[in-house]
Design a protein that fits this description.
mainly alpha
Length: about 130
């Protein structure tokens, strides 16, 4: 999870640096054998920034550091458990279209305000006053 904002272009460059680091860094082997020496880790794209889990405007939570608890603290009004259940329902619908429950589609639609609900502005409000 990385915070990005159009008003802070450096947030995008930090994200790009992290993505390059993740894509082009050779990870260590999962099951190293004691006979072979460990291979050298190549980091052509180092990522010099530390994780930042507290400041919302400089949020940097690398892979493996995120958790439902951190997400809940950082985003009020966001229910990670509800979204997780909605994902499960949506995935189950791929196999059985009659699956009941709230899917991510319904969550997304509910989060978008409907323009027809608000007050309507009449065209005369934009007419020049004499």
């Amino acid at each position: 999870m990385f915070y990005t904002a159009p008003t802070q272009p450096d947030t995008y460059s930090t994200l790009v640096q992290y993505l390059l680091h993740q894509l082009y860094t050779t990870p260590p082997p999962l099951n190293p054998t004691s006979d072979a020496p460990p291979p050298a880790v190549t980091t052509r794209f180092p990522f010099p920034y530390r994780a930042n889990v507290l400041d919302r405007d400089a949020l940097r939570i690398p892979t493996g550091w995120d958790s439902w608890g951190k997400i809940s603290v950082l985003r009020e009004g966001f229910d990670p458990a509800r979204v997780g259940k909605a994902w499960d329902v949506s995935i189950a619908r791929l196999k059985d279209p009659n699956e009941d429950g709230e899917g991510v589609e319904e969550l997304w639609e509910a989060s978008i305000p409907i323009a027809d609900r608000g007050p309507k502005v009449s065209p005369s409000a934009f007419a020049p006053k004499s």
